[in-house]
Amino acid sequence: MEKMSKKSALVVSAHSADFVWRAGGAIALHASQGYEVHVVCLSYGERGESARLWRSGNMTEAKVKQSRQEEAEAAARILGASIAFLDLGDYPLRADKETLFRLADIFRQVQPHFVLTHSVNDPYNYDHPLAAHLTQEARIIAQAEGYRPGETIIGAPPVYSFEPHQPEQCNWKPDVLLDISAVWDKKYAAIQCMAGQEHLWEYYTRVALQRGVQAKRNVGINSSTVISHAEGYQSLLPRVTEDLS
Questions:
Q1: Nearest to 78 by CA among 206, 232, 229, 193
Q2: Looking at the domain assignment, is residue 244 inside a domain?
């Protein structure tokens, strides 16, 4: 992967479908604005995220991985993102120092203006917090002058956690509601690529509609802004600004 020169974003997804459910709107929206968005899937979700495929019979782990990769690649094309797979396994997802360095190298190559990843807590899926911690630690490594001296370090891109499946149990509270109305059709088309988890299509449609209602409420119900769908994000780091409006 060549170093990106335009505005860019990095999305770190524990499994091959997480980026679609939780950040597909942000990806499509920023891609339409000229951002180069790169998705990293730490695993294919071959064990815990592919129940329908395993139930189909005559299935192997290799076949499941191939199917999930094809789904994710198709979704990324629709959203306008590039995608890579680190194949770290899932249930459990595990990483060593070399994995951290691989992810830090991706940070250096992408030079992201912002980063999206999982919530730091999730009692239902330990792969998700691990992905969040790996992302944050790789970001720190990529900022270090002593890591691969001579390379261009990254700045301090803001990190946002996207919405977990059960936010209340994950201590996740959105402080950003992103209007994705203009790209909802793209997100839903990407969602439909995830044939291995069809049971989640309707659920994440409802989430987008609910966040859309909340976003509309937060810009004022008398506003002329039309918001039908939105995504929620939680900032993991303070934002520096000169304007609080």
A1: 193
A2: no
